[in-house]
Amino acid sequence: MSQTWKAQQYIKNASFVADYGLPVLKLLEPKAGERVLDLGCGDGTLTLKMAQEGVDVHGVDYSDDMIRKASSRGLSAEVMDGSKLSFCDDFDAVFSNAALHWMKDADDVIDGVARALKPKSRFVAEFGGKGNVNVILQAMETVFERHPEFGVFSNPWYFPSDDEYKAKLEKGGFKVTSIELIPRPTPLNAGIRGWLETFANGITTNLSEAQKSSFFNQVEAMVRPILFVDGQWMADYVRLRFSAVKAG
User: Fold this and answer.
1) Which residues contact 196 (CB under 8 A, 6 or more apart)?
2) Domain boundaries, the chain
3) Can you name the residues that pair with 135 across neighbouring β-strands?
4) 85-120: per-residue pLDDT in tens?
């Protein structure tokens, strides 16, 4: 199973991701002249905001297509696995929005971030936390259980509790200055199908087109009574937001 990203599809169906990342950027408070790593930069929307403020920002992302889009905006960006960061004492801060839950090797990610940061530098991020998209996730699992021909369901995400991730940060050499789970029901202008096509294509990668259509229809029907509210689709998001400082 392999999640794939198409920049134009992402911009069309998931522009809200960068919009909701603005409070995380405010928490980071990047300053002109600082060197910042944007971990999981995607199409570079928030990377660009930092660059426009005079921040020396470099983006990395696992997706070739996302990096092509970020680079087309004149940004410094490269393809890199977030669990295999190759930097050493290079950055004043590491920023990440809506990306860490895709990196299931959390300890490796944190170790790589620690290596990338200068002493006493900060790591600020937000990503899916415990309970995130739980209704959608349960529906997807149920559909797979009902259809053995679909294969075995594999959860592509890592949604930790605040206590769990705090412990990992501290083990990795960080002092956690703030960490919290934030329930955040999120409107989906592209509907639940657009969300599934964008964020869950790795789950359906081995299904035929007919099976994919059946999967989408069944998941949509199962979650509609809970997530379709007053004519608007809402995703049951829970975000984990934190700020931490590398030990000096």
Assistant:
1) 136, 204, 216, 219, 220
2) 7-132+157-187+237-246
3) none
4) 999 999 999 999 999 999 999 999 999 999 999 999
52: enclosing H helix or E strand: helix 45-52
**What is the C-alpha separation between 61 and 10, in angstroms, rounded?**
14
112 exposed, middle or buried (CB, 10 Å; 0-12, 13-18, 19+)?
buried
pLDDT tens track for 224-246: 999 999 999 999 999 999 999 99
CA 103, CA 2: separation in Å to the nearest integer? Answer: 13
pLDDT in tens, 37-69: 999 999 999 999 999 999 999 999 999 999 999
Say yes or no: domain 7-132+157-187+237-246 is CATH 3.40.50.150.
yes
**Strand (E) positions, the chain?**
35-39, 56-61, 76-79, 91-97, 117-128, 174-183, 186-187, 228-229, 232-235, 238-246
Query: Is the overall model pTM greater than 0.90, yes or no?
Result: yes
Q: Work out the number of other CB atoms within 10 angstroms of the CB of residue 212.
A: 18
